[in-house]
Specification:
35% of the residues lie in helices and 12% in strands. The protein is α+β, with helices and mostly antiparallel strands.
Length: 127
């Protein structure tokens, strides 16, 4: 696996683990839409079929962050079928759906744009 794929995979895993493999907005339990079994320890009593597909969302677009913004302070777990689309609306149009503005998403995970920028600036600094 090349370095960029390793960074992306580590980002996804860290975000899902922090959020307990749940959509951070609607709270629905889920599994990584790209596969894997990381969700199993979080949802032992739930059947695989009942879990929603989750994706990681860059709160501030990765192209606007140093080193791609692949840091925990800039990521949030969102259900693929509804909440992720609502969050992407801001990136597509510049207008946020109520409750899905970047500041709202940062607040939901206990972060901020400033924290995300700093974390992203420091990412890969030792390489």
């Amino acid at each position: 696996m090349n370095r960029k794929k390793q960074i992306r995979a580590a980002f996804r895993m860290a975000v899902f683990e922090r959020d307990g493999y749940r959509c951070a907005m609607c709270g629905r339990p889920g599994k990584d839409r790209q596969g894997g079994s990381g969700h199993e320890q979080h949802h032992l009593a739930l059947s695989y079929e009942t879990l929603v597909l989750l994706d990681t969302h860059h709160i501030t677009d990765r192209n606007e962050m140093p080193n791609g913004g692949y840091v925990l302070d800039n990521g949030i777990s969102l259900c693929d079928e509804s909440c992720h689309a609502l969050a992407e609306l801001f990136h597509e149009t510049g207008t946020a759906h109520p409750g899905f503005a970047p500041a709202d998403l940062y607040t939901r995970i206990g972060s901020s744009y400033e924290n995300a920028w700093l974390s992203s600036s420091m990412a890969n600094a030792g390489e």
